[in-house]
Each structure stands twice: as C-alpha cells, then as structure tokens.
Amino acid sequence: MRALFVCLLIMSMHSGRLMAQSDITTGMLPVNPTRMMSGLYERTARADRQLRDKSLQYLQRLKTKEQRLYKRLYKKDTAAARQLFSDIEERYYLYGQQLTTDAPPIHALRQQYVPNLDSVNVALRFLQDHLLSGNTALAGQLQAGMAGFQQQVSQTSALQALLAGRSELLQTQLRSFGLLKELRKFRQELTYYKITVARYRSYLNQPDKLVSKLLSALSAQPIFKQFFQRYSALAALLPPSPDANPLLNPGGGLQVRSLVMNSLQQTVGSGPNVNELFQQQMGSAYSQLQTIKDKLAAFKKDKTLNDLDEHVPNRQKTRSVLQRLELGTNFQSTRANAWFPTTTDIGLSVGYRLNDKSLVGLGGSYKAGWGKDIRHIALSHQGFGLRSFLSYKIKGSFHATGGLEYNYQKPFGNFRDLPGMNDWQKSGLVGISKVIALRHKLLTKTQLQLLYDLLAKDRDGTQRFIFRIGYNFK
Questions:
Q1: Angle 136-174/115-130 helices, nearest 10 degrees?
Q2: H or E element at residue 370
Q3: Helix, strand or coil, per DSSP, at residue 470
Q4: What is the pLDDT along the chain (474 residues), one digit of tens a residue?
Q5: Is residue 212 included in any domain, yes or no?
Q6: 40 with 138, same domain?
Q7: CA-to-CA distance for 356 and 260, rounded, in angstroms?
Q8: What sections of 22-135 are H helices per DSSP?
Q9: Would 220 be classed as within a structural domain?
C-alpha cells in the first residue's frame, strides 16, 4: 500500500510538471523563435565585432595624443617626460590585449547590466528548456554570442576606467607645466570613446520588433515569470529569498538597527564594547565621507580644470559616414487657380553632418507639370535643377540656410534633350529655416524654409522670395 502511494505521488508530481511546461507552446508565440534567434545572433555578432574594432581605433588615437604630449613635455622637462611617458608602447599594447584576448568570465555582480540582454538570455534559456526541440544548438550558440558581447562590454568599461585614471594623472602632472590645453585633445578623444561605447550598449538594449513580440508573449505566462525570477541576472543582485542574506529585513524596506547589531555581535562577539565600537566606526566613516565631499567641492571650484570641459565635443565624430548622412525632400507648387497646381517642384537631397550644428549637401529637383485645370490634366517635364546647400544651427530650432542652384526652367521632352549648363538659370539662396520634430515611422522632422534669391535682381520677372517645405527621412 505504501509503495502504491509513493508511485501515485511521483506520477502526480511528474504530470504537474508536464502541465506546467505545456501551458505555452511554440504555436502560441507571435513570432518564429528560429527566425528571431538567427537575426539576433547576426546583430549581436556584428555589434561585438564593431565595438572591438572601434575600441582599438580609439586606443590608437589616444596613444598618438600621448606621444604628442610627450614631445611637448620633453622640450620643457626631459626627466619628467621620461618618467610620465616611458611606458606608452607597452601600456597601450596591454590595453589592446585586454580587448582581443578572451578573459575569464566576470562575475554577474561586476558586469555591466544590460536589461535587454538579461531578458533575452532568460527567454532563450526558457525556450531551450521548455519549447525548442530541434534548435537547441542555435539557442546555445546565441547565448554564447550574447555572453561574449556582455563580456566585451564589461572589458571595455574596465578599460575606460583605466583610461579615466590615466587622464586624471596626466591632468595633475601637466598642470604645473602649463600643458592643460594640449591635454584637452586627449580628454576629448576619451569622451568620444565613452559616447561610442554607450551608443553600442544602448543599441543592443533596444530590441527589434520580433524580440519585443516574443518577450511580450512570454511575459504574460506565469511559468515564465517564475523562470525569470530564478534565472535572471537580477536574481544575483536581489535574491528572492530573505534567507540568502541575514541582513535583509524580512518585513521589507531598509535594514533596522537591531539586525545590524546582531550581525556585529555574531562577527566580533557580544559585550558592552560592541556599541562603542559601532559608534567609533560610524564616526570614522562619516569623517571620511565629509573629506571626500570637501575634495569634490574644491574640484568644482577649480576654474582651470573646468575650462577643459567647457567645450562640448562633436558627437558626430563617434558616428560612421553612413550614420552622418541625412536624406531629405521638399515640395513647392505653383497654382493656376485657388486650388489646382500647374507645376510642382520635387527636390531630393543628401546631407552630411560636419558637426552637431553644421550640415552640407547636394541634391536635385524636378518640376512636374499637371496641365491647365482639373479638366485638362497632362503630365509633362517643365524643368530640372541641381543644388548645393549649407545649414547652420543658430539657436533652438532655427537654422541659417544658404546654397547655390542651377535650374532649367523650360519644358523638355526627355532628359537627353537638356542643354548645357550655360543655358541654365543660376540662383544664390540665403535665408532661414525652422525645424519641427515629427513622430513618424518614416519621417523625423519638417523644415519650413524662407529663402531669398540674391541673383534674382539680374533677371526680370523672377521670383525673389521662395518658400519651401522639406522633410527628413529616418
């Protein structure tokens, strides 16, 4: 009888586990897990490779900046230059090795926490344990790739801390030699590197549509919530059970004094001197904290040091050439009556960001004819143009705009019939534009432009003021 009872108990536990695992199936998911994993693996591998390459590029630039500082200091103090910059080659070689060599896994408590990586890792483990049957190898490969990227982010952050310490040392040593202006370029390059790493981290922390759908579907399942609470990276930071840490308050909230005193008594023993020891340590800690605050206050009051950070770095330097390009279009119509247009100028342009305020570019325009009125619609070629432009941000959303344009303003049959540039009309445009941000899937902003043609005075009957509406694509 007892054996039968044990068998029934084991069967009930096993069936309960099967029911828990069958609460969700791959057919209930809004996306194909295999497709999602393949795309995410390529994205992770590309981000890992690009982050490593960018880090090596910035290390080479920082090394060049230090070599220039060495030459400047060598002219003023040879001994100080040799002491401060004697290990440039060896040090930057070790920095590069730190990025390219596989380091031992970093403990979860010391890793840079990326929420999306954590969620995807737990989702992959859940799929691998509960749903996937023939794609466990792909899931494991993706988990290894994401773990490698997490390791790369952590190693890069550790390298940034070393470079920041090096920057502070150089700042302290070079101040007495009057080389703080030369140090500015080194600090700016280090800032560019920090911005680049932060962009890659935030890029991977923004899941695409497939990953978002999968995580939303899994988050609605109670079994996945329990799985996440147990295996996420946050579980290492915040143990779900108060028994994991004797100093956690079982009632929630902050630690109470009694729990801290009990922990001290267990560590140093009980007696009348425990309370006195506790008060002495608290006083010493408070004194050290106040000393740190005083140093920070003195650092903020140092005008010489603040001058180094007044210049806002050009964030465009951390972007690739393609990321600095901006595609745009604009429209301008001429009406025959109150509402029907006779011609419409359609312009396309490609701009390149020189810095956060300046944009230069090239473009072209096409003038389409629509006919006389609604009863006589006829599409025709009424003109074609080439243009260049320059835009500079003045303040807020207002920009100063200028450019040179060549327009052919006569009807033509096809583009092979266009004459030489001597027969084209030349325009020199200057004006102002206002940029309005848009929340659209395709467009990012609208530009309202009011331009004046400086060369229109040489031509009779030519419109001098031009109003255009432009749009920028994502």
A1: 160
A2: strand 358-371
A3: strand
A4: 444 333 433 333 333 343 344 455 555 566 666 677 777 778 778 888 888 999 999 999 999 999 999 999 999 999 999 999 989 999 999 999 888 776 555 555 555 566 667 777 777 777 777 666 556 677 777 777 777 877 888 888 889 889 999 999 998 888 888 888 888 889 988 988 988 888 877 766 666 666 777 777 777 777 777 787 777 766 655 555 444 444 444 444 444 455 556 655 665 566 656 566 666 666 666 666 666 666 555 544 443 434 434 455 788 888 888 889 999 998 777 665 555 567 888 899 999 999 989 999 999 999 888 877 677 777 888 889 999 999 999 998 999 999 999 988 888 888 888 888 888 989 999 999 999 988 877 888 999 999 999 988 767 667 788 888 889 886
A5: yes
A6: yes
A7: 52
A8: 33-76, 78-85, 88-100, 115-130
A9: yes
Q: What is the dihedral of CA 182, 188, 189, 192, to 10 degrees?
A: -170
Structure tokens at 459: 């031509």
Q: Residue 90: CA atoms inside 13 Å, Cβ hemisphere, count?
A: 3
Residue located via tokens 């509406």: 469
Q: What is the CATH number of the domain that holds 373?
A: 2.40.160.20
Task: State the residue range of the domain holding 409.
Answer: 325-473
How many distinct structural domains can be found in the chain? 2
pTM of the predicted structure, to 2 decimals: 0.63
